[in-house]
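Repro:
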Amino acid sequence: MLKISTKTRYAIRALVEMANDSKQLHLLDQLALHQNISRKYLENIFALLKKGSIVQSKVGKNGGFYLREKLETITLLRIYELMEGEVEVVSCRSRKRSCPRLSFCPVSPVWSEVSAQIKKTLASKSLKDLCEINRTEANCEESKPASKKRSA
């Protein structure tokens, strides 16, 4: 069974929350609380997201994280590949573990096609799409924040 890791699912959940209020800076403590994710685990996820240029941090008293790009440019495929690496449904097709039987394997083209379809689907969905599923487009804005998100 192809599984999407917890790390990838949590990254997407946190990013969608940020997308729903993209004019604000987001504190990891608040994201962890709202998404019921360990802060330490979220720190590791955000280190990868920052390395992949999806989020940026602002340090200091009024610091936090914000999305670096427009919502429609941040695809699920990009997030997946940052968290997991390449999309392959079987390890024998992976660049890391190329199978010696790959060139004459009768089912290899099928696995390739399945992986390609998964990639196509993930590439076709952006944070903007996910944001719009549950919110109006007005709540999914793409500007850099001025202050950190405060809870009531």
